[in-house]
């Protein structure tokens, strides 16, 4: 099932997501598959639970789409359930980011280059891994979603003022998009 992507302005995007219970984890496989289908249908590289209206600690990524063919960096495709970033380190680098929930808006975000994260994968295995480069960036962006943070929160005050009207238009359902979206109720 492909979910509509929740648009900027919906309160679910600002909620700190809740962990899945042991019982809920037994049913998470279908949700993971649906989230990958939704992400791919919207041509995204990541998608978090709040972006489909679920305030749960889950996100999926496929950083392979962000990695240059000549790069030695390896991409990663997988689900992160009940995730917790343990540590972030390394040189901070700035890169333009966008978001499926905020179509048509991009902005420079600075993030550390590496992280260690503890999570449950789609096979329900508990894992603790380190990631760096583009994969770390995609994880950090999606992890922010389950913490109620959007990439626009990192933008400079000037950039925030420049996009204010565009954000208001998105929250009113006036946004150019090529995938199914759900806009906040008026």
UniProtKB/TrEMBL annotation:
InterPro entries given in the database record: Peptide_deformylase, Peptide_deformylase_sf
Manner of cofactor binding, per the entry note: Binds 1 Fe(2+) ion.
Binding site for Fe cation: 99, 141, 145
Classification via NCBIfam families: pept_deformyl, PRK00150.1-3
Family: Belongs to the polypeptide deformylase family.
Protein name (Swiss-Prot/TrEMBL): Peptide deformylase
EC number in record: 3.5.1.88
Pfam families (alphabetical): Pep_deformylase (PF01327)
GO molecular function: metal ion binding; peptide deformylase activity
Keywords: Hydrolase, Iron, Metal-binding, Protein biosynthesis
Cofactor(s) this protein cannot do without: Fe(2+)
Family annotation (SUPFAM superfamilies): Peptide deformylase
Function statement: Removes the formyl group from the N-terminal Met of newly synthesized proteins. Requires at least a dipeptide for an efficient rate of reaction. N-terminal L-methionine is a prerequisite for activity but the enzyme has broad specificity at other positions.
Entries under Gene3D superfamilies matching the protein: Peptide deformylase
Known catalytic reactions: N-terminal N-formyl-L-methionyl-[peptide] + H2O = N-terminal L-methionyl-[peptide] + formate
GO biological process: translation
Catalytic residues in the record: 142
């Amino acid at each position: 099932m492909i979910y509509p992507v929740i648009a900027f302005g919906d309160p679910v995007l600002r909620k700190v997501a809740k962990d899945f219970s042991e019982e809920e984890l037994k049913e998470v496989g279908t949700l993971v598959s649906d989230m990958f289908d939704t992400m791919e249908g919207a041509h995204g590289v990541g998608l978090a639970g709040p972006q489909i209206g679920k305030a749960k600690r889950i996100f999926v990524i496929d950083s392979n789409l962000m990695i240059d063919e000549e790069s030695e960096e390896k991409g990663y495709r997988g689900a992160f359930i009940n995730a917790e970033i343990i540590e972030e380190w390394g040189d901070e680098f700035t890169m333009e980011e966008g978001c499926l929930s905020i179509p048509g808006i991009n902005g420079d975000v600075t993030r550390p280059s590496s992280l260690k994260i503890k999570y449950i994968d789609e096979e329900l295995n508990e894992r603790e891994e380190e990631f760096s480069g583009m994969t770390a960036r995609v994880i950090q962006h999606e992890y922010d979603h389950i913490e109620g943070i959007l990439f626009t929160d990192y933008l400079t005050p000037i950039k925030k003022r420049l996009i204010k009207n565009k954000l208001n238009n998105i929250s009113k359902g006036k946004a150019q998009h090529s995938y199914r979206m759900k806009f906040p109720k008026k």
